[in-house]
Known about the structure:
Strand content: 5-15%
Number of strands: 2
Helix content: over 70%
Radius of gyration: 22 Å
Amino acid sequence: MVKLLHTGFTRLRKNKLFWILTAFSIGLALFVVYTQYRSMKNYGDTIEAEQLMLNYATVIGVVIAIFTSLFLGVEYSDGAIRNKISVGHRRIHIYVSNFVIITVTSLFSYMVFTAVVSFIGIPLFGAITIPISKLLMLLGCIFVTIVAYSSIFTFIAMAIQNKAVTATVSIMLAFSLMMAALTCLKILQTQEYTPITSIRNGEIVTEKIKNPKYPSEMEKEIYQAFLNLNPAGQMFQLAGRTAPDLKVLPVYSLGIFLVFTASGIVLFHKKDLK
């Protein structure tokens, strides 16, 4: 296991994809700070540095999907997995080592983004406006959700031997999770009453009518559960600071991690390597 991790991280350091991911994280952070600084100067907008740190969480699932599918996709195509097994490495160790590498890389990407935003954004936009304990809790939840994301895309990459298919499935799933999360959020944010403006006796009258699309309490609970179960849903809630209970989200992420990692290990153990 230690040898697999050492070999994997050595390969990672020499991998162009890893450095592209790092450059992307830095470039995105600089772009976000620049655009928000212009907005502040031109329109007088109030910018919160901590919000910029959290925003990357909403798209990092797609980033992890792309990196995992391309980085692990070559494990089958270049015969690396067969070679690891032929020299005596256990399949469970191969799977877990790959998961660890993907998770560490994904966390590193987010931390690089956060560090750049912090070092440049705080001097430009001012100090953090929320309690540090709250910010650390939000970031901690994001890190746990990144682990859940990594378990999902590692599962896909180790289950499918074709790199192109792996990339397609992973990216489509990442975007599907985002769309599903946005749909749930839209329903949960539906207003109970809709304002209607009319003219009566020459006067403008505004009244509120019941919105027929307003969800019931049971529907709200169902959609909230789906939102919590979806890693993208967790990220949108964390970035928007709208999660009803932060302590619940890591539990869902832990469940995702356990299900996909255990299933992946079992499937990979039984897999017939061609």
